[in-house]
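Model: Ready when you are.
Researcher: Fold this.
Model:
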Amino acid sequence: MGSHLTSIQWQRNGQDFKYETYDRTYTIKFSSEKNIQASNPKEYFGNPELPNPEELLVSALSGCYMQTFLAVACKYGYIIDSYTDEAVGITDKNEHGKISVTKITLRPKIKFSGSKLPDDNTINKMREKAHENCFISNSINSQVSIEITAN
């Protein structure tokens, strides 16, 4: 079906390797030859100016869901002019008492155009179809809710 290669690299900078103070910054290398730096959340001594793994998880779900929704809308014969999402991930203890991203809420705002516009029922059908077919949605244990605003 497919292979998705990334690599990460971290290296200690300086002599310090104490839990509270060692540098958490690392580099993510993608198969496209693009690199980004990331870190821990600031609560875990990371650099708050860099994305953290939890944000990357939420953005992966948001991006995958968007691409799937766009494909579904095309197949239903609708035209979308814009799609924005303010996704939020909540970190809490899961049913096993382990800290995890327990809930992710996607809040897509979608602007349709053209002579054929979807009604609320059709938007809900497309939302469900996109959620059922999003690769990342199918790969995670987090509760996912999707609150679409369309005009």
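Researcher: Now this one.
Model:
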Amino acid sequence: MTRQIFILIVAIGLVVLGGIGETNYLNNSSNFVLADINYTENMLNNKNIEKAKESIKELENSWKNVKDAWNIFVQNDLIDQIDDSLVELKAYINLENYEESLVYIQKLRENLITIVDRQKILCENIF
């Protein structure tokens, strides 16, 4: 009986530690992508379209580096939402449509933050 309880406690501990590690990874990797989003937004706010076009390439590269690992932890439809927002953002930047670009930057930012928040170990996310 005590051996079974010990195994159960160890298993629960591993699940909790794995969840904490996952949350930390998602939070840290999202910060890299969010930094590129913020830089792109600053370039758009300054009406510097050439720098915005360059920064969207950096943003795409950052997302590609993070995306493969996120596919392990996150639902695919949430990853697809970020991909879609990124494609639309790039299109609006290439069309030099500042207002729509800023809308999709905010949408992209909110999607990233929502994913990280959903993966946290909280009672509301478990039940």
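Researcher: Key takeaway?
Model: Residues 23-126 form a domain with the Four Helix Bundle (Hemerythrin (Met), subunit A) fold (CATH 1.20.120.290).
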